[in-house]
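Worked example 2:
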Amino acid sequence: MHNRTNKTCGFTLVELLVAIVIISVIANYTVPSLGSLLNSARRQSAVSDMIALINFARNTAIMEQRTITMCPLDQTNRCSNNWNNTPITVFRDSDADRVLSSTNDVVRIKELTKGGTWKASTANRSYFRFFATGQASYAIGNMVWCPDNKNSGMAAQVIINMGGRPRLSGDQDGDGILEDANGNPVVCR
């Protein structure tokens, strides 16, 4: 019979240092890509939420055969220009005055996705309005989403046409920055 002695297993100091070096090299390559992946996911979430809200407002106008307005509201329940840090309200606007008259007229209130800011360009208007036909008519325009770090390469633009349908702008020249309807780069300021 053999007499066995218990040997303790573990890492030597050299093995431990090599493992730490390998882990740190891998982390240096993966952490920046994770940040980019997170920014891309935030953009996708924000844009998807906004397009869904626009489509919801348009569809509600068609289904209810009523005028529906979509905008952020100020303290007096009037449409405001501040599309950030406030929820976006979709409401029945029978008088077409951009004022929420009664809480019974609220169709949906949507908190915006964090991690970026929205800027709406609707001529001199602070709202999007959809008629019973679904058309946006004179309240057409676009909305630009910029990440908090103002990187124009991560910007997104939703364009709303006269028919009330939203679409995303594209990168026509392949430089990694989206162009607006006029072919100008979308810029985050």
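The chain has one domain: 15-168. The helical segments are 13-64.
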